[in-house]
Description:
heterotrimer; B: eight-stranded parallel sheet; about 15% strand
Amino acid sequence: MSKYTVRRSGLTMPIVTARFVDNAWRRGCDFVILDLEDSVPQHMKPHARTLVNAAIAKIARAGTEPFARINHEYMLADLDAVVWPGIRRIRYPKTECGDEVRQMDAIITRLERERGIRPGSIEIDPGIETAIGVTNVYEIAASSPRIREFGATSGGYDLSRDLGVEMFVDYDQFVYVRGESELAARALGLGVRVAPFVANTSGSVSDGDHAYRQAEAARKCGFHLGTGGLNPAVVEGHNRGHTPSDADVRDAHWVLEQYERVLASAQTWLTIDNRVIDRYEAARARDTIDWARACAERDREKEQAVARTRAALAAATGEAG
Amino acid sequence: MEPSQRRSWLLASLSHPDRIETLARCGADAIVLDLVEFVPEEAKHAARHEVVAAIATVRAAGAAAFTMVDPELAYADLHACVWPGLDGVVVSRVESAAQLREIDELISRLEHERGIPTGAVRIALALETARGNQDGYEIACASPRVSALTLGRADLIMDLRPEPDGEIHLMPYLMQRLVIIAGALGKTPLGAWWRAPDRGLLATPQNTYQAAQRGRAIGFKGTLCLHPDQIDPIHRAFA
Amino acid sequence: MAILVRRSNLLVSLDDGAAVKEAWRHDADAVTLDLEAVPAARKAEARGAIAQAIAAAARGGAEVFVRIDRTFLHADLAAAVRPGLDGIVLSNIQCAGEVLEADTALLALERERGIAVGSLCIIVLLESACAVWDMRAIVRASPRISQIGLDEINLARSLGFEPAPQLDPFVYARGRLAVEATAAKVAAVGMSYPLSAFPREHRAQEIETAATKAKNLGMKGVLCPFPSWVAPVNKAFTPSAELVAYNKRVRAAFAAGVAAGTAAVPLDGRMVDVPVDEWAIVVIATAEACARRDAHKRAALARAI
C-alpha cells in the first residue's frame, strides 16, 4: 500500500439534493463531502440525516471516498446519522476547542463498536473557521489521533464572516491564520492540507482554470492534499494540478541520478547545470516520483470502480428492458 | 563585540579544516564551525578532532568562534567544542526546551571542568523544524545562554518550497514570528529574507544584499551565510 | 446585533489649541485628545484645558477620548475623567496588569464623579514585541477594552529597525491582532501598510483604498493622524450602496433557495449558503448602523452651527 492517501479533488454537496448525490460517481473526484451543514436548510436537517447511509454506497461505487460534514450544533444527532460502514472522514465545522473534538471522538468510538466499524478507522477533520478556533488551533489539532490531516485552508466563508472581511480580494488576507494552523499541523506530524494564495477576485466556484492554478501551486509547494471544491467544473483542474507532470517525473529521475554523483564524491552537495544537488533536492525528487506513482495507482483504482459501476448499471438496464 | 552587532556568520565545514584559515580571514564577524550541515555522518568523528585548532585559527583572525552542533549528538559535539576561546554554539534543529536544558547543563559542566568562565559560552538557537518553531518561545526561555535566534535552514529542513509569487512557502510567517519571539525575550534575531530562485548555495553578492536588506527591514540584525563573497553585501545591508 | 461604529478616530494634540478647536468639524466618529504627545513641561497646562477641549471636540457628535501618558497615569486620569468623556487611549501597554491598573483607576473616578460605572472605554495600543506575543491576555484584561491596535511606528522602533515601505514587516503582528481581538469580541483598529507605519497626507482616493484594505484584513476602524483621513476612512468602513444592494440580492436568493429545498444557491457564479447569508445580514445591519451614526452626527452639527 502506498504511504500516501491520494485526496487531490473533492466536492462538497448538499445531501438533500438527490441529483448531486446520484451523479457524484461520474465526477472523477477522489472524495465527496456529504453536507448536512451549511448547504442544508434548517427545516430539512432531520430529513438529511435519513439519507446518509444510502448515499455512502452511491459515492463509494466510483472509488471515491465518502466523507460527511455535520453541524456544529447537532453533533450527537448528526454523528448517529453519518457513522456507517464506508464513511471515511467526518468534518466538524467551526471547531473552537479540543474538548469538542474529544467528545466527538468518544461518540464515534461508541458508534464504531455498535455498528461493526473497525475501531479508529473514521477520521475527524476539525474545521478552523472562527477566530476562537484559530487561537486554539494547536490544542485542537492535537486533540485526537483520528485527526490525520489538518486543513490549513483559510479564507473560507465562515472565517471571513467572523473576522468581518470581504472575500475575493487580490491580496492574501490569511497569512497569520494559515501560518498558525500549518505550523501546528507540521509540529504534530499531520498531513497538511493547504492552498497557497492564488487570487480569485471573481469569487467564482466553477473556474476550472483557477482550480488548476491553485492545485498546481500547492503541488509545487510540496503539498499533496486537496482542499476540494463546490462545483464539478473544478475537479479536473484539481486532479491535474495535484498530479506531477511527466516532465516533473523525468526531472526528478535526473536529480536522483545526479545525487548518486554527490554520494560518490566526498561532498555533501554539488552544483550541476547551475542547480544545487543535495540530500534535500534528492528527497524532493523521491517524493515527486512516489507521489506520481500513488496518483497513477489511485486513478487506476477509480477507473476500475467506474467501469464496474457502468457494467452493473448496463446489466440492470438490460434486465429491466 | 556584542552578539547583536555580529552581522555576518559564515559557515565553515570542519570536514575541510584546510580551508578554515582562509575563511576566517574573509572579514566575517563570526565563523560558525560546522559539525552538522556539511559534514557527512561518517566524517563527523574526524571533524570533531579539528575543532580546537579551528577555534584558535578563527580567534587569531579576529572573528568570533562558534560551532554548529547537533542536539542528537550533543554529548560528543559539545565535548569536542567547549574549550577556552569558544564564543558560543549554534544549536541546529533544536526541538524542545528539555533538550536545550540538557545542552545548557552539559555546557555548564564543561565550562567548569575546562576553566571557562561560567556562562561565557553563548547559544544561538536555530529553529529549523516545525516542532522547534511551535515551541520556540519556551525553548528560548530554557537557557540564559541563548543570545540569538535564527531559522537557519528551516526552508530545506521543513521542505518549504516557492509559491507562485516567489516567496518561500510559510517563511514570511515564520520570519516575522521569530522576530516577535526574539524581541519579546530580548534576543537577537538573525536571518535574511530569501526568495526563489535564490538559495543559500547559489547566492550571489547581489541577491544576498537584497535578501539581507529585506531581512533588516523586518528586524533581523545579521545573518548566517555560506560563501565568503556574501560577507561584504551582508555588512553593507546591515550597516 | 450590537455594531460599534467608530470608523475614524481623529487624533489631535492637546498642545495644538487650533487643532483641538477645529476637531469637531471633520466628521470623525471619535476624537482623541492626545495628552501623551504634550511635552512634560506643558502637561499641567494641557490637563487644565481638557474640560473645555472635551466639550469642543464633542460638538459634531463625535465620541471623545483622551490619550493619557501612563507615566502620569493618575494625574492624567484625574484631569481627563469627567462627564462627556467616552474613554481613554492607553499607549505602549506591555502586559495585562497595566490595563488592570488603568481599569481600577477609572472605576474609582467613575464612582467619585457620578459617571456610570463601567461606562468608560479603553482603546489599547501595543508597541512592543512582548505585547504582541502576550496579546491574548492583554485584550482580555478588562471588559472596558473596546478597541485594540498596533502603533507600528513605535513597534518598529522598539524592535530596532527601520521598515521599508515596499515590505510589510507586521503581517504576523496585524494578523494576530485581528484574530485575538475578534476571538475576544474586541474591535481591531489600524491602517494598512505602508500608511500604518509611514502616516502622511495623501489623496482621498489613496486613503480610502488603504483603509478598505485595512478593513479586509480585519480592522474595524482607523486612528487618523490627519483630519484629511477622516472622510475617506469613514467611506471605506461604510458599506457602499452597491454592496448593500448586492447583499439584499444574496438574502433574497438564499431565501428562495431555502424555500425550494436547498441552502446552497448559485448567484453570479458565486455560491450562497448559510455563512454568506449571515454575512449579508451583517453588511446590511452595518450600513444601517453607519447611517444612524451619520444622522446623529449631522444633527449635532446642525445644533452646533
